[in-house]
Amino acid sequence: MKSLLFVLVVLVLLSCVPPVRSGPNIYIRRLFSTCWRTKGVCKTSCGKSEIHHIFCDSAHLCCIDKKYLPVEFGK
C-alpha cells in the first residue's frame, strides 16, 4: 500500500514539473542527425564545400564533404 501511495505522489509531482525547452543535448542531436556512416550531416541545404549524395528524408539532404565521397569510375 505504501508503494502505491509513493507511485501516486511521484506521478503527481512529475506532472507539476515544467517540460525542458532547451532540446536534446548537442552531442545527442549531432549523433542522430548524421548520415553516410557519420561523415555527413542532415541539413536543408548544403554549404559551398559540401555536396549532397543521398537524402536523409523527404525534407533534408545528406551533406558530405567532397573528400569523403566515393570515387566514381567509368561513365
Automatic annotation (TrEMBL):
Alphabetized InterPro entries for the sequence: Beta-defensin, Beta_defensin_dom
Pfam family, one: Defensin_beta_2
GO cellular component entries: extracellular region
Keyword entries, A-Z: Antibiotic, Antimicrobial, Defensin, Disulfide bond, Secreted, Signal
Database matches in PROSITE patterns: PROKAR_LIPOPROTEIN
Domain Beta-defensin: 34-63
Localisation: Secreted
Domain of life assignment: Eukaryota
Signal peptide: 1-22
Repeat in keyword set: no
Gene Ontology biological process terms in this record: defense response to bacterium; innate immune response
Keyword Transferase among UniProt keywords: no
Free-text function comment from the UniProt entry: Has antibacterial activity.
Similarity annotation: Belongs to the beta-defensin family.
Protein name stated in the entry: Beta-defensin
Gene: DEFB135
